[in-house]
Amino acid sequence: xxxxxxxxxxxxxxxxxxxxxxxxxxxxLRMVKSAIDAWPAFNGVAYHIxxxxxxxxxxxxxxxxxxxxxxxxxxxLYYEYNGCEQPSSEGxxxxxxxxxxxxxxxxxxxxxxxxxxxxxx
Length: 121
Prior knowledge:
With about 120 residues, this protein is mostly helical. The chain is about 40% helix and about 10% strand. Helix 2 crosses helix 4. The radius of gyration is 19 Å and the shape is elongated. The two termini are about 30 Å apart.
């Protein structure tokens, strides 16, 4: 691919989404939200679902781009600060609940797989 072709691709990637692409992105967010909302393990859990990455930043959102969706657990905060569990300047106690990053990921995958059997990898 020559320089002119690469520049054309970059110009296309930074353009705002078309109405069709915006609908497709919004649909992806709704689909993930419906799967998470329906999963029993998340009943009563404070979480936030949002688009992130290129879609949220309005870059590289053309038809050849994916939509990154985050499901954030709002109940826990993990620290990694020079090998310490918690920075001394923070007043927030260390989280000691059941949710660990591996368990959170496993439940997210289970919820998506239940909603979209055979479609999650």
